[in-house]
């Protein structure tokens, strides 16, 4: 692995991980050539107790995989692993719901930029080089957001839908970083400078801008059954999500395709599957090849039912209809919101006039 030219700005990659296998080493390998440092925060928040060990760690060997990578594949000492015990939480669990974990890598960061990456997120190598080149050429850039491609069940399939098309596919990921800066929230990722200014109010390359450049975030969050089942267990009980029915969704719309227009795990909105024929990050290809070669193909989702679905004419018609209805549904919801705001304004006006009338009557009665 070759590192980019030393004239590039120093980038700290921050990763939060719980049960990150089999992605762990492949994600670190994909980041390593471009990293000043990689700070990995391992462990569970309280809402993830049901998918963690009793002492707050990954139950699939992720912590061992991180330490093995440090021992065998970190010649430059770029990787730091942080657990809750390191930050004074002796029970092993991180307080809150990921804000504290994000701050754990942020306050240790020594790079010029902080680039947040989930363990199942990848970028094309040429896109990472382009981002570094842009940061070098335009040091005024404060933040960058990337639009994800949501892979589903295999490298040849992606999910799309109303929820993703309405902003949920846009991930705030890269921020300028300096002493005195503050990682304020994880949802959404928000960094403030030393004056309290949100960096996205400055020189911000938003998702529409980076997508127009062809730079995308390759998100494999729905690639493997293991991931999906664990995510659904977490979303069903986490206070911030409380996604009732998440486990049922996994059985009906992911492990099987009985709900083919609700395939995204935010299943309140219509979604669908499409074929993917674009480029793929090299380390994801390597991971899938290794799973098959190592006898771990059982971790992969079978794809025969996906192929049958995508080959059917009725599903193509359904996708077309949902894509066509999306803008109409947006307009209808926007109109409803405007009507509600108008009704609230009228209501407030009536209340003000009523109070004025009562005050006038009170004065006349004295």
| N-to-C order of helices and strands | EHEHEHEEHEEHEEEEHEHHEHHH
Note poorly predicted spans: none
Tally of contiguous helical segments:
11
Regarding quaternary structure, what we see is single chain
Q: Kindly report the CATH topology of the domain at 11-222.
A: Spore Coat Polysaccharide Biosynthesis Protein SpsA, Chain A
Largest sheet: 11 strands, mixed
CATH class of the domain at 11-222: Alpha Beta
Strand proportion, as a percent range, falls in 15-25%
Topology summary:
Elements: E1 11-17, H1 24-31, E2 37-42, H2 62-73, E3 79-82, H3 99-106, E4 113-116, E5 121-122, H4 125-137, E6 143-152, E7 157-161, H5 162-168, E8 170-176, E9 182-186, E10 189-192, E11 204-205, H6 207-212, E12 216-222, H7 225-237, H8 246-254, E13 271-275, H9 282-293, H10 304-311, H11 313-364
Parallel strand pairs: 1-2, 1-4, 2-3, 6-11, 6-12
Antiparallel strand pairs: 4-8, 5-12, 6-7, 6-8, 7-13, 9-10
Helix pairs in contact: 1-2, 1-9, 7-8
Structure overview:
With about 375 residues, this protein is an alpha/beta fold. The chain has a domain at about 10-220: Spore Coat Polysaccharide Biosynthesis Protein SpsA, Chain A (Alpha-Beta Complex), CATH 3.90.550. The chain is about 40% helix and about 20% strand. The chain contains 11 helices and 13 strands. Strands 1, 2, 3, 4, 5, 6, 7, 8, 11, 12 and 13 form an 11-stranded mixed β-sheet that branches. Strands 9-10 form a two-stranded antiparallel ribbon. Strand 9 and strand 10 form a beta hairpin. Helix 7 runs antiparallel to helix 8. The longest helix is centred in the C-terminal third of the chain and has 52 residues, at about 315-365. The protein is globular. The model has no long low-confidence stretch (mean pLDDT about 90).
């Amino acid at each position: 692995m070759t590192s980019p030219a030393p004239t590039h700005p120093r980038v700290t990659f921050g990763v939060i991980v719980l049960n990150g296998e089999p992605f762990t080493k492949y994600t670190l390998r994909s980041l390593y050539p471009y990293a000043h440092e990689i700070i990995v925060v391992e462990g569970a928040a309280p809402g993830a107790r049901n998918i963690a060990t009793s002492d707050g760690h990954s139950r699939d060997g992720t912590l061992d995989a991180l330490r093995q990578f440090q021992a065998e594949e970190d010649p430059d000492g770029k990787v730091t692993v942080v657990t809750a015990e390191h930050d004074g939480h002796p029970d092993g669990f991180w307080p809150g719901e990921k804000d504290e974990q994000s701050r754990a890598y942020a306050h240790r960061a020594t790079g010029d930029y902080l680039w947040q990456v989930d363990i199942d997120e990848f970028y094309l190598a040429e896109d990472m080089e382009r981002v570094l080149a842009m940061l070098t050429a335009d040091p005024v850039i404060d933040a960058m957001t990337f639009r994800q491609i949501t892979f589903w069940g295999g490298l040849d399939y992606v999910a799309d839908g109303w929820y993703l098309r309405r902003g949920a596919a846009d991930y705030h990921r890269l921020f300028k970083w300096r002493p005195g800066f503050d990682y304020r929230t994880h949802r959404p990722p928000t960094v403030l400078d030393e004056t309290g200014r949100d960096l996205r109010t400055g020189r911000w390359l938003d998702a529409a801008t980076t997508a127009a450049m062809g730079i995308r975030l390759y998100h494999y969050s729905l690639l493997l059954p293991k991931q999906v089942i664990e995510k659904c267990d977490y979303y069903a009980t986490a206070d911030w999500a409380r996604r009732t029915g998440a486990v049922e969704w996994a059985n009906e719309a992911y492990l099987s395709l009985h709900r083919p227009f609700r395939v995204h795990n935010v299943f309140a909105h219509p979604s669908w599957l499409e074929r993917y024929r674009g480029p793929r990050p090299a380390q994801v290809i390597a991971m899938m090849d290794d799973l098959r070669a190592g006898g771990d193909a059982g971790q992969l989702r079978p794809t025969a039912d996906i192929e049958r679905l995508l080959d059917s004419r009725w599903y193509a018609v359904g996708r077309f209809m949902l894509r066509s209805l999306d803008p109409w549904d947006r307009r209808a919801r926007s109109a409803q919101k405007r009507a509600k705001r108008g009704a609230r304004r009228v209501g407030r006006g009536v209340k003000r006039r009523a109070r004025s009338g009562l005050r006038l009557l009170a004065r006349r009665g004295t």
